[in-house]
Design goal:
By secondary structure, the protein is α+β, with helices and mostly antiparallel strands. Helices cover 20% and strands 42% of the residues. The chain folds into two domains: 118 residues, Roll (Diaminopimelate Epimerase, Chain A, domain 1); 137 residues, Diaminopimelate Epimerase, Chain A, domain 1 (Roll). It contains four helices and 17 strands. The protein has a 17-stranded mixed β-sheet that branches. It is globular, with a radius of gyration of 17 Å. The N and C termini lie close together (6 Å).
């Protein structure tokens, strides 16, 4: 019997468990993922950190990319002190920049394509391909508060399969609408390898997909605040020169919920 420590954090919602051991075996990561989700039902995703500050890495249980997990890992790696790191993250080839600002906000570079062709229109909706994950943005917003959570998830998974998005490591449907000066999202994400489907309480990647789409529609760089199902805000910064996307970043507060948890596997 082996053990690993893990910490549960909340990056604006979607409680995330970070294991302090980088486990390369997918089958072992999947086993630990299932054990943690069973012992901590509020946890929506599990990541594995290794390498220390010299060569930091973050691998998600299903090999997908997750921006909010990256922000959680950044807090742990930097000891919740201002600073910046370059980190290798699953689902992405290049290292990403992440860090902690003096005001306590934790930011993470998001892995985007510069090419505008990665965003395609589907009637009033949009398909956004990012590195490690793909999103279908539904601007109709009829799913908000109209049906149960299980029905929302079934509807989203059906749409993911209908659009052929289940071939990607992770795929999500983002139901969205504008709420006063902010945007509001309802994110439902499917991770293929570990067969999880969550109506997430927050989604950094989905918020970024919305930001990219709005930058394209408005033909300019934007900063937006996106209201998550957790009622918390994730800020999105998109740099766009009218021809290419230059940079994308999410930021906000991250809280530690549970420390020094141990799982046997």
């Amino acid at each position: 019997m082996k053990t690993t420590n893990f910490i549960v954090l909340s990056p604006g919602g979607n409680d995330t468990a970070i294991c302090t051991k980088n486990i390369k075996s997918f089958e072992t990561r999947r086993k630990i993922n299932n054990l943690i989700m069973k012992s901590c039902p509020n946890v929506e995703q599990v990541g594995f950190v290794g390498g220390g500050l010299e060569n930091p890495t973050l691998n998600m249980a299903g090999g997908e990319f997750c921006g909010n997990a990256l922000r959680c890992a950044t807090l742990l790696l930097l000891g919740n002190k201002p600073g910046e790191i370059k980190i290798k993250v699953s689902g992405v080839k290049e290292k990403l920049t992440a860090g902690i600002e003096k005001n306590g906000d934790i930011f993470a570079q998001m892995p985007i394509y510069s090419n505008l062709s990665k965003i395609t229109k589907d009637k009033e909706n949009y398909l956004v391909k990012m590195k490690g994950i793909v999103f279908y943005l539904d601007f109709g917003s009829k799913t908000f508060d109209k049906i149960s959570e299980e029905e929302q998830k079934e509807k989203a998974l059906s749409l993911i399969k209908k659009k052929g998005l289940d071939i990607y490591p992770a795929a999500g449907v983002i139901y969205t609408k504008q709420k006063k000066s902010n945007w509001k999202i309802l994110p439902i994400v499917y991770v293929k390898k570990i067969n999880t489907l969550f109506l997430e309480t927050a989604c950094g990647s989905g918020s970024t997909a919305l930001g990219l789409t709005l930058a394209l529609i408005n033909k300019k760089s934007i900063n937006i605040s996106v209201l998550q199902p957790s009622k918390q805000i994730i800020k999105v910064n998109i740099r766009f020169d009218g021809k290419k996307f230059k940079y994308a970043e999410i930021k906000g507060k991250v809280k530690i919920l549970l420390k020094d948890q141990i799982i046997n596997y």
